Backbone:
């Protein structure tokens, strides 16, 4: 797809998160008619203090924005790590962030009640990636393959620790841990939007600025070096930025799978593998995907179903479809 | 002009060097072919010159500039490398793949400009694959992919071009075609070219200079018609080599019944 068709498609994808967010405002647990929602939006700046305004501006809006930010972080990091590790089947949790954060969350809920959940998830998620990078390092170089292996090892290790915590912890607390692991935006508020937003934007911005270099890096270390790219340094920058964005997201949402794998894939099928387009379009696509998934999650069957379940339910069959249809093309075989 | 001066390389913790005391030079605008049997140290020498491996001793100079002391970006503006055939993980278009050659010229946070795209268009034209510009790089043939990599090296706009066995995955005709194109571009743009090859007959047709490497040492350096003979090739490949002449060409062959 080239020329005008590509420009129009890209433009639609770029504005899709805003359209999804606008539409999502009209759905929720509390039944509001579309005209009531519009009334609130119209009088938003005058600061009307009605219950309807509180529902829309203090509950729905921050939740939608948070879902968009988290979707953006997971999708952009997925696309980045797929290029850096030269493997289109990599997801943003490959280096052990999910297992590390899950363990951090479990000890915060189980034993260290003074430690905020977000801080624990952030610190241990980052720690897991740091450990994986240190294990993979030999002779001052971090090779791609040993990095993936180290990620698997670190994940297995933290998963074992998590199981241990689950085994010994109070059953009531176990329930909160399991709920957190499913991934949800049920507790979203403006404070979470601010804290997660800073980390996500700080993590995504350098990736966005350096995105053309991802093309070169995905050709392999030696080739990238002969093309003048300092691969070792760039890889550390990209991994550090992805880690910051993903841990910031995980800290407020728990572990939401599939989106970081599927959104970049889908965008690559639509717009091709050039990271100049892929990175911004993945950010937008991931954001709108997550907003839609969360809107379904909070309206399905009158329950606030954890959104991680929705993304997995939608993701697994979708991935089979990708594999059967465009797989050969988007995996470059 | 590229000067390789007493270059040696040995792997860490291994005392025997892979390449030892290798010196030669190639004048500007010349095409030099590095010949040698498998395991002779060709690839090692190649990686040392390309700046990918650090030699344990020796220097590589391009017109007085010490290549090994430069950073990757600086070196990439002076030296373009055409790797062996490979499969990238993502189906970049041919244009996107050739644009990567502009990497050392594009600012860190920038993307390629219209001028860079023009350079790429010219490079595609020079190797005669403009019609492939929008094709996915993963869907073209091995010969075409080699052309793309050569176009990428041209887009890199460096005075020195290194090619690592550019014919290794190509059919009988394409081997000739690829080297012919490199030969023509080298002459047109006054590029200095150094390539490794397995076929002495290709070297005798296209090379200005042949460098023979065996067990990490240089066996002979010189013009193809003086260096390529029964004796040197026999020593180089440990085989009994003969020559036939036909239509003004001298072709080397191995006497099959003499192989150990």
Residues:
């Amino acid at each position: 797809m080239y020329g005008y068709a590509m420009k129009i498609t890209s433009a639609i994808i770029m504005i899709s998160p805003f359209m999804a967010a606008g539409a999502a405002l009209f759905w929720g647990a509390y039944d509001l008619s579309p005209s009531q929602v519009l009334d609130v939006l119209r009088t938003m700046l005058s600061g009307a203090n009605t219950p309807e305004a509180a529902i829309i501006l203090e509950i729905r809006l921050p939740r939608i924005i948070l879902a968009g930010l988290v979707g953006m972080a997971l999708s952009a990091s997925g696309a980045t790590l797929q290029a850096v590790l030269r493997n289109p089947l990599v997801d943003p949790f490959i280096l052990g962030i999910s297992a590390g954060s899950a363990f951090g969350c479990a000890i915060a809920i189980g034993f260290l009640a003074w430690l905020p959940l977000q801080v624990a998830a952030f610190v241990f998620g980052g720690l897991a990636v740091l450990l994986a990078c240190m294990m993979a390092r030999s002779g001052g170089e971090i090779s791609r393959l040993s990095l993936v292996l180290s990620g698997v090892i670190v994940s297995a290790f933290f998963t074992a620790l998590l199981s241990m915590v689950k085994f010994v912890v109070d059953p009531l607390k176990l329930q909160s841990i399991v709920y957190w692991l499913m991934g949800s935006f049920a507790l979203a508020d403006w404070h979470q939007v601010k804290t997660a937003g800073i980390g996500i934007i700080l993590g995504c911005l350098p990736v966005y600025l350096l995105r053309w270099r991802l093309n070169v890096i995905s050709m392999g270390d030696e080739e990238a070096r002969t093309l003048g790219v300092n691969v070792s340094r760039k890889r550390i920058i990209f991994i550090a930025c992805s880690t910051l964005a993903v841990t910031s997201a995980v800290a407020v949402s728990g572990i939401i799978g599939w989106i970081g794998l599927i959104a970049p894939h889908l965008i690559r099928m639509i717009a091709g593998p050039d990271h100049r387009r892929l990175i911004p379009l993945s950010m937008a696509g991931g954001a709108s995907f997550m907003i839609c998934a969360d809107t379904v999650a909070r309206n399905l069957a009158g329950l606030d179903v954890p959104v991680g379940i929705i993304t997995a339910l939608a993701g697994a069959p979708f991935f089979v479809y990708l594999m059967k249809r465009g797989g050969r093309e988007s995996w470059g075989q | 002009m590229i000067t390789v001066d007493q270059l040696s390389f040995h792997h860490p913790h291994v005392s025997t060097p892979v390449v030892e005391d290798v010196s030669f030079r190639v004048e500007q605008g010349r095409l030099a072919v590095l010949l040698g049997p498998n395991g002779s140290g060709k690839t090692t020498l190649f990686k040392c010159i390309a700046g990918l491996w650090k030699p344990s001793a020796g220097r590589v100079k391009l017109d007085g500039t010490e290549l090994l002391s430069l950073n990757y970006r600086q070196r990439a503006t002076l030296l373009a490398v055409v790797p062996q055939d490979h499969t990238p993980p993502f189906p970049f278009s041919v244009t996107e793949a050739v644009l990567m050659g502009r990497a050392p010229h594009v600012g860190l946070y920038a993307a390629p400009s219209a001028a860079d795209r023009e350079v790429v268009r010219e490079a595609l034209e020079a190797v005669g694959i403009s019609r492939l510009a929008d094709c996915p790089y993963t869907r073209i043939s091995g010969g075409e992919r080699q052309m793309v990599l050569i176009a990428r090296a041209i887009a890199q706009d460096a005075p020195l071009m290194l090619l690592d066995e550019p014919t290794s995955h190509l059919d009988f005709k394409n081997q000739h075609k690829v080297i012919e194109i490199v030969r023509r571009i080298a002459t047109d743009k006054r590029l200095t070219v150094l390539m490794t090859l397995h076929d002495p007959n290709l070297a005798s047709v296209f090379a200005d200079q042949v460098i023979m490497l065996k067990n990490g040492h240089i066996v002979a350096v010189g013009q193809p018609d003086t260096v390529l003979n029964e004796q040197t090739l026999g020593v180089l490949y440990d085989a009994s080599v003969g020559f036939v002449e036909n239509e003004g060409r001298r072709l080397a062959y191995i006497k099959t019944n003499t192989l150990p």
Q: What stands out?
A: Chain A has a mean pLDDT of 88. Chain A touches chain B at residues 2, 83, 86-88, 209-210, 212-213, 215-216, 218-220, 222-223, 225-230, 268, 272-274, 276, 329-333 (CB under 8 Å).
